[in-house]
Amino acid sequence: MAEITYENVTKVFDGTQAVKDLNLEIHDGEFMVVVGPSGCGKTTALRMLAGLEEVTSGRILIDGREVNNVEPRDRDIAMVFQNYALYPHLSVYDNMAFGLKLRHTPKAEIDQRVREAASILQLDTLLDRKPRQLSGGQRQRVAMGRAIVRHPKAFLMDEPLSNLDAKLRVQMRAQIARLQRTLGVTTVYVTHDQVEAMTLGDRVAVMRSGVLQQVARPHEVYARPSNVFVAGFIGSPAMNMVEAELRQGPDGLRAAFGSQAIRVDEGELRARPGLRAYLGRRLILGIRPENMEDASLLSNADPASIIQAKVELREELGAEVDVHFAVDAPPVGVEDIAEAIGSEAAEARALAAATGKEKGEAGASTMFVARVAAQSEARAGQTMTLFVDPRALHFFDPETGQAIT
Amino acid sequence: MRGYGKAIAVVAVVVWSVFPVYWALNTSFTTTSAAESVPAHFVPLPFTAHNYSTLIGQTGTQGVSYQFTRSFLNATIESGLATILTVATALFAAYAFARLEFRFKRLILFGTLATLMLPAYATLIPLYRIMSSVGLVNTYPGIVLVYSSGFLPLAIWILYNYFASIPRELEEAAFVDGATPVVALLRVIIPVSTPGIAATAIIVFLMGWAQFIFPLVLSSDLSTQPLTVVVAALYGQRIVPFTLLNAIGVLAAALPGIIALALNRYIVQGVMAGSIK
Questions:
Q1: Do B9 and B133 reside in the same domain of the chain?
Q2: What is the ipTM of this complex?
Q3: Cβ separation of B175 and A163 shorter than 8 Å?
Q4: Residue B105 sits in a domain of what CATH number?
Q5: Considering only alpha carbons, which residue of chain B is nearest residue A164?
Q6: Closest CA to A330 of A362, A306, A376, A358
Q7: Per-residue DSSP letters for A257-319?
Q8: Of A213, A226, A270, A382, which sits with the fewest C-beta atoms within 10 Å of its C-beta?
Q9: Using CB atoms within 10 A of its CB, is residue B118 exposed (0-12), middle (13-18) or buried (19+)?
Q10: How close is the nearest chain A Cα to the Cα of B172, in Å?
């Protein structure tokens, strides 16, 4: 077990900065998930920790010892690769025993450790098989086993579940979580999947374009995203964002966008003293789809928290319903959001907004998604009323994209 | 029509390449008079294994039999040792080219490859002078060294491409597991490269087995002369019947054939299966 520290770590590949001035502390026994879109530098950060990539500047410390110039073999870490990288010519047993043999561990101990790991991972009956005789899930478990038997200071995992099918991924995710809790080994886990990040991490580090955006507990990243990028990246469907104006209403502040206005909760205002300064100014308003509800299902919804929505699409999810509708306010043109929700999704939104315009709706429009209860009767083409939770609004500065605090 | 044309073309190519081999086999199992008769006999009648018994199983250090067995042995030793030396050297060189970063890497790699474009006789005389000055003319080590120097570029190129196709994660996993680069090469890369290594070994052995010009110059007597040189001499003397020469040819083709078959089981696809994904 170990503490891991990135100190001002920068990595430059052929003139481009893959990781920029990364500062991150991972506590002893902690499960740290590094998440971000592809090309954000998360894998490079992990490979530098493993010693597979040189650090351009800055320091990486494992248990207080600088390891910048330490060979991977001397760092006492174990790594699970995205493609598993099993030794194809060795049996499952020998794949797991390989590292221990190289370290001249006594035969009896190797045997004990391999069998122990095999039983944890339910590989007991497969020890004599070659990797080619295994299914994807089994190979993934062998890759995990190879890391476990070493009893290393830290586990490094590079998208270990991305090659599994959806169902198996959920199972393995739970298994990895259990395993890490049981073994208590410091773990750095890299993924582009925000669900994995939320479910696995003690803390989540969100990266974008080589820059660390936010490090916090999963719930905090979700509830208090530090900027529009994190806000758009964490959560699915992505947070709705729109240009809005903060106005003084009859009984408190209102966030107005297009022809709509919703109440800003007093408590929220106290929690974000910086918000007052935006009175009468533009800002970015964020509303998560799950923080809206079909107002007709609520008995006493505050009229100041209700917006009108003309439903364009109803998506049945079983337990819930996703309702798509246009809002007559300009979309947030920040590139941060496109990257966070994926450029295809951003294009789809822009396209939807454009078709909305063609239909004769005046001015710019933004597509919103609301996740409402399955009982909702809303149908495409109808106008519905939506309740927006005033305690779950997000505000960002339109220039910097930073959360207003 | 296209189908027929294709079939005729295939048959023509097969006949063109297989017929000489068949003819050598055919005449090696018959008598000189039958082999020279007109019209030709397309089956070995009358059948005789006399040519083979003349070559194999005779004792003494005189005559065709001794010339054959000794030169066969020489060719085997020279090609075999050259194969081992070439492949062993090429493994390390190819691994370095495929995985390590060093100055002028591409220049050195392509410079090495460029030597393949030199005609062999361009280096023949200089190599003879060098071997002569170090006293290695007409010795096994001399011939093996000259062969290896000639075969290395191709062997390095084949293995370089093979290594380059192996995912880096495999070595990286080994590094994290505690391996040095040499250990990773010996315990991971080489074992998963057996198909490439076997193919290289076969090609190098065949190139050695077919050498003529270099041993013609570097070998002065039967202590090191390989089969090719001796057969050419026998043919030139016009005293050995050509049915016997054909029997020598058949036997000369047999050994590389057996080696290729033996190594063939390593040249199977799917050695890498299961490693990735």
A1: no
A2: 0.86
A3: no
A4: 1.10.3720.10
A5: B277
A6: A362
A7: ETTEEEEPPHHHHHH-GGGGGGBTSEEEEEE-GGGEEEGGG-SS--GGGEEEEEEEEEEE-SS
A8: A270
A9: exposed
A10: 7
For residue B138, what are the domain limits?
61-275
Q: Is residue B56 part of a domain?
A: no
CA dist A317 → A320, A321, A373, A380, B177 (Å)? 5, 5, 10, 15, 45
Residues B134 and B192 in one domain: yes
Whether the per-residue pLDDT at A360 is higher than 50: the answer is no
Residue B76 shares a structural domain with residue B200? yes
* Burial class of residue B216, CB neighbours in 10 A (0-12, 13-18, 19+): middle
Confidence label for B239 from pLDDT (cuts 50, 70 and 90): confident
To test the contact with chain B by mutation, choose from A75, A76, A80, A83 the residue with the greatest count of B C-beta atoms within 10 A, namely A83
CB atoms under 10 Å from CB of B270, counted, come to 9
Cβ contact A332:A287 at 8 Å? no
Q: How many domains does chain B have?
A: 2
Query: With contact defined as beta carbons under 8 Å apart, do A373 and A204 qualify?
Result: no
Instruction: Tell me the shortest Cα–Cα distance from B237 to chain A, in angstroms.
Output: 54
Whole-number pLDDT of residue A269? 86
B157 alpha-carbon distance from chain centroid: 16
The terminus-to-terminus CA distance of chain B in angstroms comes to 46
pLDDT at A359 over 50: no
d(CA A184, CA A179): 8
Average pLDDT estimate for A104-133: 94
Burial A157-171 (b: 16+ CB within 10 A, else e): bbbbbebbeeeebee
- B277/A163 Cβ within 8 A: yes
**Which residues are paired to A260 by β-bridges?**
A257
B193, pLDDT greater than 60: yes
Question: What is d(CA B60, CA B63) in angstroms, rounded to the nearest whole number?
Answer: 8
Q: Residue B16: what residue type?
A: W
